[in-house]
C-alpha cells in the first residue's frame, strides 16, 4: 500500500470511539422516548466497557438529563465526551462521517449529502452534522471533504482491502438518473476503493432505507460475509433473501475465491399495530474488543449472537436490546458510527 493514499478501513480495524446522538422529544422517538432511552443506556454501558463514546446532544438540558441516566447505570464518565449540536434524528450511521485514512495517520472525513433516505424525511440539520462536528474541533486536524452526492454510511460495507459491497435498490432510488457504471465510478473515486460489488436482491419489510447493506450482509475478517437469511418458507422474505444468498455465493474475492458465507437465523415476525418491523441480526456493531449484537426478545437471539461472535474471534459478544429501535425502522448499527484509531483520541 502507498502510505500517502487514503483507504476506507474495515469496521473491525482499531477504533478510538463510537459516535451516537441522544434521542429527545424533538426527534421521531418522542412517542416512545423512555423506552428507546433504555436501549441507548444499555448501548452506552456496553460501549464504555471497551472504549470511548462520543455523544451528540441538542442542548445543555439534554446533556444533563443523559448524564444523569448514564451515571445511574454506572457508566464510566471518563469514557464519555459530549458535543452540543442540533440534529433532526439519531441515525448517525447515515448522517455521520465516513472516514478515510492513510498510512501516515492522516484522516479525511467524507461528507456525502444526506437527504433523509431519498427525501422521505426532513434532514437539513443532519446534513450539516459533520460540518458542525468539524467546527467544534472533534476530529482534530482531519480534512473535511464534502461530496455533493447522496449516500448513507449504512448503504456501504468495506473489507478494508479495497472492496465495497452495496445494493442496487438503495443507490438506484437515490440516483435514478445514473447508471450502475456511473455510480460505481463515483463510489470508487470518493471512497478510494478498487471495486464495488453490487447485490440486486435482498430487502426487509419495515425498512425505509431501500435495502441498506448493513441490514443484509456484512464483511468479516478472512473473506467471510455474514448475512441475514430466512429459513421460513412461508415468510414473504424467503425467496428474496434466498436469491441474495445465491448472489453472495457467486461473488469472488480479489484472489478469485468464493467468500465464506455465514447465514444468520431468522427472527419470528415482530408486529407493531399490524406493521411488520425489520428485525435484522446483521445490524450489529463491531468494536475493538467486542461485537454488540441486537436482541429482539426472540428465540433466535442467542444463536445469532453466537454466530456473529464466531465471525469476529477474540471479541466479547454483548447483546443489546433493540426492539425499541426497530419501531423506527432501524437497529443497533444504524444509530452508531465508529471513529478510527487516531481520529478522536
Report on the structure:
By secondary structure, this protein is α/β, with parallel strands linked by helices. The chain has one domain (15-340): L-arginine/glycine Amidinotransferase, Chain A (5-stranded Propeller). The chain has helices spanning 33-48, 60-73, 92-95, 116-119, 124-127, 129-135, 168-174, 180-191, 238-250, 301-311, 323-326, and strands spanning 15-21, 52-57, 80-84, 98-101, 107-113, 143-150, 157-158, 163-167, 195-199, 217-220, 224-228, 260-264, 271-272, 275-276, 285-286, 290-295, 316-321, 337-340. It has a 4-stranded mixed sheet with strand order 3-2-1-18. A 3-stranded mixed sheet has the order 4-5-6, with helices on one face. A 3-stranded mixed sheet has the order 7-8-9, sandwiched between helices. Helix 2 links the parallel strand 2 (52-57) and strand 3. The relative contact order is 0.17. Keywords: Hydrolase.
Strand order of the largest sheet: 3-2-1-18
Q: How many structural domains can be distinguished in the coordinates? A: 1
Sheet of most strands: 4 strands, mixed
Strand content: 15-25%
Unreliable segments (pLDDT under 50, ≥5 consecutive)?
none
Rg over alpha carbons:
19 Å
